[in-house]
Amino acid sequence: MPFDNQIDIPQSFMLMHVAPGHTRPNASHEVILDRYERCEDMACMLTEHARTIAFKENFAAQEVLMRCHRGLMADVSNFNEKESAWIVHRLAELLEWAPPAIGDVGAGM
Fold it and tell me: What are phi and psi of 53, to 5 degrees?
């Protein structure tokens, strides 16, 4: 079956789907692509919210990012722990803020 999608999934996201000691993802490309698109969309949606909270509440960038992470973790039916950490690291990247010390995805971004 031909695959027409041109989206390049970052290595940091792909690694979340590779079990320790393995080299191949534990989910299909379609599943990983769907999860990636959801996570990327959430990171993009959170950018304006994070800027607003930082400005209105006068919170440091790290505090804003940690609050976003706690919010994502409040309902794990939407994003799992690794995805939530990835979203926050991506959010930090989009905002050009230093990433918080959560999860192990920061090194791959």
Answer: -65, -45
